[in-house]
Amino acid sequence: MLINEKKLNMMNLEHRKLLEEQMQLFLFEGKEVQIEGYVPKAK
Question: What per-residue string of b and e applies to 2-40 under the rule 16 or more CB within 10 Å gives b?
Answer without folding.
Answer: beeeeebeeeeeebeeeeeebeeeeeeeeeeeeeeeeee
